[in-house]
Amino acid sequence: MTCDKFCELISEGQPSNPNAQQHLQTCDGCRAMIASLTPSDAAAPNVDRIQAAIAKNMRPVRPLPSNLTLMLLFSAVFFAFALTAAMPVGYFGFRALSSFQKMAVYSGIAGCALSSSALLVSQMIPGSKRVLNPALVLPSEIMSLIVITLGMFHSYTTERFVLRGIGCLRLGTICAFGCGALAWLLLRKGFFTSPPVAGLIAGSFAGFAGFAVLALHCPILNVPHILVWHLGVLAIAVPVALIIALVGKRYHRVHG
Amino acid sequence: MTGAGELETLMQRYQQADTTAAATLVNELSPQMFHFFLGQVRDRSRAEDLLQDFWLRIHNARHTYRPPEPVLPWLYAIARRVRIDQYRRSRAIAEHEMQTEVLPERPESAPSSRSTLDMRELLKTLPPAQREVILMLKVSGLTLEEVALATGSSVGSVKQKAHRAYEKLRKLFGASR
Q1: What is the ipTM of this complex?
Q2: pLDDT single digits (tens) A208-228
Q3: Which of A118, A242, B112, B174 has its CA 20 to 30 A from that of A110?
């Protein structure tokens, strides 16, 4: 067996493989490398102080619920918030859509809400299995909304494009912040191994909520309007959430 | 050392405010966590600080452990966070510190001879991501799957990092068959 093959075997977690063991007996270099990788005999520090500090602040805690329960909680927050926030301003958008458009648009939003919820949950539990990769899922979610918009609606010129658009952007952003704040209350129960990633996901979750409120409220079914002013909510919510996460992390680092 | 499944039971009892279980966990796991930190910071007092910070965070985040899931990936995911925070904190401090005198240059600590290489010297030659994987696999004895969970990556990526690290280390020892 070559040293290359030996390295391959041990990196695959097979150090006790008979071939690897045989190689170790004959190869001085590999044997020295493995011997050097055994921990030094540096004694661990005295842990009495740590034990005393823990004992002083001991109280029972309840483990977080299962991933599915947490995901359903986030999704419930999303849908309840979108429906409630659109109520006072009116469900004009819902009424303006055909049945087919309703199915396409709202199932797209529901998909984004569920996958963002799953991503949020995976950020809360350290060492948990990552089924979804945020780097793939977040762009796919946004792309799916763009494709649905392009496929379901037409482009036509509208009067007061900016003026009417600003109203939508304002409403969507306010709703995104509201939903983001609610999601944060749930999120803070977890432990973030990567606050910036958690911030990005929370921002997109909030942005989708703002988009959902606009999909229920806004009756303008014009592609440029939706792409610029409705999806624009995400373009605001994601960077803002990321900045909040980074500032929070820095504050935590400085002030403990 | 505590056997498989016992750590999970101890952790469960710790969540129920069992002080003895907490003390046993700290006793059992501190040596390997200390070596994990020591392998990365190469300074005993900093490793001790990291160990304290680590247990403080474990205590505050103990509700995020869900029995009967394996404890080690959960612990190491938090340990990584502690290490990263410490690294950024020390970097921020270094940026604000002004050097007032020219310090004597430190001699390059190149690995001198095969026989004198110790673990920390060896690990120093590896990039941080590979060093972390080797520490978890070889020093802490985690499985590939546990390392993947702790680092939030795939088993394939862990294997690749480990392979690259072993290749690099092997070259240091001149073994090239």
Answers
A1: 0.79
A2: 999 999 999 999 898 999 999
A3: A242
